[in-house]
Amino acid sequence: MKLKYIEPLLTKYRNDHQELYYDGKISIEDKRLDLAFREKEREIDLEERRTDKQILKSKAVEDEAKSFAKRQDAEEKALQFESSRRVELEKIVKLDEVIERHRSLDDFEAILNKEKERLVNEKNKYDLSVANADWYSVDKLVSKGDRVLIDFVGEIDGIPFDGGSTEGHLLVIGSNTMIPGFEDGFIGKKAGDETVIDLKFPDDYGAEDLKGKKVQFKVKIHKVESLMISINKLKLNSDISNF
């Protein structure tokens, strides 16, 4: 009889206990889900903040790049302006120089004409003197403008070559009628001297077989002469000039 009344109570107790158990589990699960949801919300919020920061950072970089480009463009324009300004200033300076030269051009031309006239007169006097001058034998060392009477033999590798030897040749030192260096070999020498002049034919020498070849000239100086004008001729020239 007692079991009849106790068993329903036990069953109800068990059911209530299970309900409490399941309610507790559900509550715990709900809390877990709530925590997970909140964690997800926090992650999403952090991600959104991170994205916002990246957007702001990208925008800042873009703004800085634009600002740099503007500054660079402004600097280039400033340099171009400065360069064009410098060119214009140089033109002005050159123009001033041209104007200044033009101002003194008349005076310079007058001075130049006067100098030309003086040189022409000097040349005429010199030509007149030379035309009336004579060569006189002198006892002196050879210098430029003197004339020497010489014999010479030209040799290549110790063998005389055609056209390279002569006797009794009159040569005016400084006339440049021989190959380069030949006349210089007589400077400082005197009558009676014998000398050897080592030279090289120019690469563009007229004779094909002598171009660029080394040559040795054995020379004997017989006489040294200088150009002089006699007193009588000098007096005659003076009378002609005065006339």
Automatic annotation (TrEMBL):
Does the keyword field hold Transmembrane?
no
For this protein, what reaction is catalysed? [protein]-peptidylproline (omega=180) = [protein]-peptidylproline (omega=0)
Per UniProt, subcellular location reads as: Cytoplasm
Signal sequence coordinates:
none
UniProt keyword list: Cell cycle, Cell division, Chaperone, Isomerase, Rotamase
- A Pfam family that this protein carries is FKBP_C
- GO cellular component terms, semicolon-separated: cytoplasm
User: What would be an example GO MF term here?
Assistant: peptidyl-prolyl cis-trans isomerase activity
For this protein, the Enzyme Commission number is 5.2.1.8
**One record GO biological process:** cell division
The record places domain PPIase FKBP-type at 145-237
Q: Which SUPFAM superfamilies match?
A: FKBP-like (SSF54534)
UniProt similarity note: Belongs to the FKBP-type PPIase family. Tig subfamily.
Q: What is this protein called?
A: Peptidyl-prolyl cis-trans isomerase
